[in-house]
Amino acid sequence: MFFHPLDFLIIIAFGLSLWAQFRVKGNFEKYAKVSASSHMTGAEIARQLLDRNGLSDVPVEHVRGSLTDHYDPLKKAVRLSDSVYGSQSIAAISVAAHEVGHAIQHSEAYGALVLRHKMFPIVNFTSGIAPFLLLGGFLLGSLNLIGLGIIFFSAVVAFQLITLPVEFNASSRAKKLMLSEGMIVNNEERGVSKVLSAAALTYVAAALLSLLQLLKFIAIFSQGNRE
């Protein structure tokens, strides 16, 4: 009960998650020092890509913080952080174009993104409750609480898995858009790919870690039922 066979894989997945975060920070810092040949800032790249894809009504806004960049589907706004908004670096324009990729997904009703948006209110609730149900179930030896916790946690894992194609697609769109618009040249494509791939890896690691944890809870629940 104290050490489950899946715990070894969970430790490896946790290590992968830490390494992915370190890689994101390292690649961003590296390419934040490399200026793009276009000499356009992250905000200018985002604005131009949005306009050329019929999204002139989507604003590009400045948000405080580091790597806090995101696309807000409710306000339909691309928000870029301090290190991206006014920077002309390869890292900045990569992140800016990625967020534009999400805006384009939204405008095209990209399936995985639509599903993620619909799931968000549910997951926002279950993610806060699941840990308490599972902890309470284990402390009290209640299979009913553990079972309910598993159901709630399953929604969180499903959300993370659905996020993967959304993020990979946005990154793919970002690189293709910048190449087709001449915003990056061939020797800059490698840097863009490294920045975007590192970011995508964090989502993969997080999803893998959660999936393994879910499988462990299910195995414990099943064993308890048999006993």
Considering DSSP H and I runs of 4 or more, what fraction of the residues is helical? over 70%
Provide mean pLDDT, rounded.
Answer: 93
Number of helices: 7
Q: Spans of 5+ residues with little confidence (pLDDT < 50)?
A: none
| Rg over C-alpha atoms, rounded to the nearest angstrom | 20 Å
Question: Helices, strands, pairings?
Answer:
Elements (H helix, E strand, L loop, with lengths): L5 H26 L10 H11 L7 E3 L7 E3 L4 E4 L1 H4 L4 H18 L3 H30 L2 H38 L5 H41 L1
Parallel strand pairs: 1-3
Antiparallel strand pairs: 2-3
Summarize the structure in words.
- Helix content is 74%, strand content 4%.
- The protein has one domain.
- A hairpin with a 4-residue loop joins β2 (70-72) and β3 (77-80).
- The protein has a three-stranded mixed sheet.
- With 227 residues, it is mainly alpha-helical.
- Keywords: Membrane, Transmembrane, Transmembrane helix.
- InterPro entries: Zn_peptidase_2.
Give a brief outline of the structure:
With 227 residues, the protein is mainly alpha-helical.
List descriptors.
227 residues, mainly alpha, three-stranded mixed sheet, 7 helices
